[in-house]
Amino acid sequence: MQSLGLEAVVFGGRTRDRLAEHIHYRHFRSRDIDLVTHGSVLVEQALPSSAIRNPFGGFGIEVSTIHLDSWDLSNTFLIKRHQLPVTFELLPLTADYNVNAALFKPMQFFKYASLLDSGAVSSLQTQDW
Predict the structure, then answer these.
(1) What is the pLDDT of residues 67-102, one digit of tens each?
(2) End-to-end alpha-carbon separation of the chain, Å?
(3) Rounded to whole angstroms, how far apart are CA atoms 74 and 121?
């Protein structure tokens, strides 16, 4: 993905689970990793041919120990439906629940690692996980 010039963020459950671990000091198992990409090429071009299109317009692939789901930022349902600007900053606002309203920007794709939170931390602190 890096060699194709894509940027990628970790969104949804995986980010939520890592935040919950820091807040509640216990392990939370993630079912999968949701990787949202943006760039001049489609994520389909960056994934191996074994990747399978899912019903949501993205692709799924089994990696060594976990399932990876990936899609292009521009194909995020609410961004596409409401013709919103295609920016990672809006992505957390499209989350289904507040606990999922965060994304992680890994340093492999950005100058430095960072977290963008739109209510996930507050929601995790007030809920009993």
Answers:
(1) 999 999 999 999 999 999 999 999 999 999 999 999
(2) 34
(3) 25
pTM of the model: 0.92
8 Å CB contact between 45 and 4: yes
Closest CA to 73 of 84, 85, 61, 86: 86
Strand order of the β-sheet with 114-117 is 52-53, 59-62, 67-72, 32-38, 7-11, 102-105, 114-117
- What are 61's strand-pairing partners? 68
| Distance from chain centroid for Cα 94 | 11
